[in-house]
Amino acid sequence: MISPQAAPWFGSDRKLPQFYRGLQIRTDSNLHEQMQGLITTLLPPAAFPGRRPKVLDLGCGEGALAQRLVDLGYDVVAVDREAAPWQAQGPIFLCIDLNHSAAVDQFVSQYRGTFDLILAVEVIEHLHSPWGLLNTCRQLARADTQLIVTTPNISSWWSRVWFFLTGDLWGFGPESLLDPGHISPLPVATMKGILQQNGWECQRVMAAGSLPIIWAYNWKRLLLSLVLLPIRCLMRGEKDGWVLCYHAKRRAPEAVKKIAPVASQHG
Predict the structure, then answer these.
(1) Phi and psi (nearest 5°) for 65?
(2) Is residue 139, in this structure, part of any structural domain at all?
(3) 71 belongs to a structural domain
(4) Are the CB atoms for 87 and 23 separated by under 8 Å?
(5) Beta pairing, strands 23-25 & 18-20
(6) Side-chain half-sphere exposure of 90, counting CA atoms within 13 A
């Protein structure tokens, strides 16, 4: 369902800036195109006669994805903590810091139970509380709302190599704390658990973005990816894709179980 392919056999992707109608796409290569294909498959506008499907785009940046969705026939509310970068025409823009609980509470009170689809594309890794974000999304959702969340893939073959060489997760080292501001790395098992605890049923996890298996970014990465080819068959888990995309559906209220904190057995 993800297209263009997230893990082509060969590529020289240099992660250069991409744009949609002059708006910079501040995600990995191909991710917005992949999201467009996924969204139009899961939630085609034609399935909503008499109205436009209502979409929430959290962490919208300049508005490239929100603009793309408005052009496709969706009614979009876009949220970001900074108003200055916003340039899209058509979506409703709200300046909200998702790390600020009072601002989030006010937003929830205004839009509770509103959205058919909620997007958190490359935003959850920037937040102090991933649990808080997904709980907020549940409150903003209708009974049949769908959720798409993407995160940097810390299980990718490149991230595994980087961790082996440096002891840091790719994209979450000291240099990433301020720019791009990555503070919450999320393994797959943790992300699935957070979804479940906050009223979401994970439907699938998909590799997204663009991370070639043989990556000719430069001669060093080309050589390294060639050397790793025999080792790839031993790797388990989500080794492909620069990004992981989680598709979830809201669970019925009676199916949501609150998990109490486990008391310490020591001391």
Answers:
(1) -75, -40
(2) yes
(3) yes
(4) yes
(5) antiparallel
(6) 17
Give the contacts of 127 (CB within 8 A, at least 6 positions apart).
98, 99, 133, 183, 184
Q: Domain residues for 152?
A: 10-252
Task: For residues 154 and 257, give the distance between their C-alpha atoms in angstroms, rounded to a whole number.
Answer: 28
Mean pLDDT of the chain: 92
Query: Tokens for 140?
Result: 């903003």
**Residues 229-239: tens digit of each pLDDT:** 999 989 999 99
pTM for the model: 0.92
Lookup: tokens for 134: 């997904």
Q: Are 77 and 91 in contact (CB under 8 A)?
A: yes
The sign of the torsion formed by the CA atoms of 220, 222, 224, 227 equals: negative
d(CA 50, CA 130): 35
Beta strands in 122-253 (DSSP E): 141-152, 200-208, 214-215, 243-250
Q: List, for residues 98-109, the tens digit of each pLDDT value.
A: 999 999 999 999
What is the per-residue pLDDT across 115-146, written as a single tens digit (0 to 9) for each? 999 999 999 999 999 999 999 999 999 999 99
Q: Which CATH number fits the domain that encloses residue 67?
A: 3.40.50.150
Q: Who contacts 264 (Cβ-Cβ below 8 Å, separation ≥6)?
A: none
Residues in CB range of 81: below 8 A, 6 or more apart: 95, 96, 97, 98, 99
Q: Give the whole-angstrom CA distance, residue 51 versus residue 45.
A: 8
Residue 258 lies in a domain: no
For the chain, how many structural domains are there in total? 1
The answer to whether the beta carbons of residues 57 and 76 sit under 8 Å apart is yes
Lookup: tokens for 256? 């949501």
Residue 265 lies in a domain: no
